[in-house]
Specification:
This protein is of the alpha/beta class and 260 residues long. Strands 6-9-10-3-11-12 form a 6-stranded mixed beta sheet, with helices on both faces. The chain has a domain of 176 residues: 3-Layer(aba) Sandwich (Rossmann fold), CATH 3.40.50.300. It contains 9 helices and 12 strands. The model has no long low-confidence stretch (mean pLDDT 96). Bound molecules: adenosine-5'-triphosphate (ATP) and magnesium ion. The site of adenosine-5'-triphosphate (ATP) has 12 residues, from helix 1.
Length: 260
């Protein structure tokens, strides 16, 4: 029996922003249905990794590899990476003035459906599914008729990211601090949605600073980004250790152990 290769394979990925190298060499694998938590001090490059995988043009990748389901992501434009099954949520979802939320999400959803060989959804079918998903996420249905994120509260923006995730059903989703700024009900909705999609085979990379959220997600692995690479790999104990002492002390203690 041959084992299937991991869904996401990132190898020695270097990411530059302008003149600066933010990530030196990131290597990680995520299998189908696996949930990996990505931790790291502020500014360690977690969002940079997400933006580079998503294909944001400000983040250049001069070296390394990123394969999703065997497809090389790096030569693809952002929309082609989404068609390949990648979803990356924004840490701070931007406004898109003048573009209605329901049209925006339906257009994106139908592009992804087309790539999967599925029929497009008409406005009627889309709306009934979107309203049901919005209700599950505690997002008022009126938000569907407004311009994308314009005038949305912090928590509503995060819920709107989840609405897209819920409808698109990607192969792999990277959620960047989706829990920050969310109330208790919002955090519960995240956990519930992630559980449901994971059971259907979606893999997750979840960036979070909060132990309670990380515990509720029951991750398969916990990674710490530091010095531009995956500095540590562990399980929930790694998240607990960081929560106990903070990044600075944790890193100093890890360095002392390594040097001993
Ligand atoms: N578009 C950009 N322009 C300039 N610098 C950037 C840009 N994106 C990231 N950086 C820099 O790269 C470093 C990593 O930033 P990044 O946002 O990836 O950190 P992070 O780990 O997500 O932090 P946080 O926990 O605060 O969200 C920071 O020093 C940041 O200032
Ligand atoms: Mg970030």
């Amino acid at each position: 029996m041959t084992l299937a290769p991991p869904l996401l394979q990132v190898r020695d990925l270097r990411v530059d922003v302008g003149e600066r190298t933010v990530l030196q060499s990131v290597t990680l694998d995520v299998a189908q249905g696996e949930l990996v938590v990505l931790m790291g001090a502020n500014g360690s490059g977690k969002s940079t990794l997400g933006m580079a995988l998503a294909g944001h043009p400000s983040y250049t990748v001069p070296a390394g590899q990123a394969l999703l389901g065997g497809t090389d992501l790096l030569p693809l434009a952002a929309h082609e990476r989404a068609r390949a099954g990648l979803f990356v949520s924004f840490q701070a979802p931007p406004d898109v003035p003048g573009v209605k939320n329901n049209l925006f999400i339906r257009t994106a959803l139908n592009a992804v459906r087309q790539a999967r060989g599925e029929e497009p959804q008409d406005a009627f079918d889309f709306l009934s599914g979107a309203k049901a998903a919005a209700k599950e996420l505690g997002l008022p249905a009126a938000m569907l008729g407004r311009p994308v994120n314009e005038g949305f509260s912090g928590g509503e923006r995060k819920r709107n990211e989840l609405l897209q995730l819920s409808l698109m059903k990607p192969k792999l989703a990277m959620l960047d601090e989706i829990d920050s700024g969310m109330d208790v009900d919002g955090v519960r909705a995240v956990v519930k949605l992630v559980e449901r999609l994971r059971a259907e085979g979606t893999a997750f990379i979840i960036v979070s600073h909060y132990l309670q959220m990380i515990e509720s997600l029951q991750p398969d692995a916990v990674l710490r980004l530091g010095d531009g690479a995956i500095a540590e790999r562990g399980d929930i104990e790694l998240a607990r250790a960081v929560a106990r002492t903070g990044f600075k002390q944790h890193i100093a203690a890890a360095a002392a152990t390594a040097g001993a």
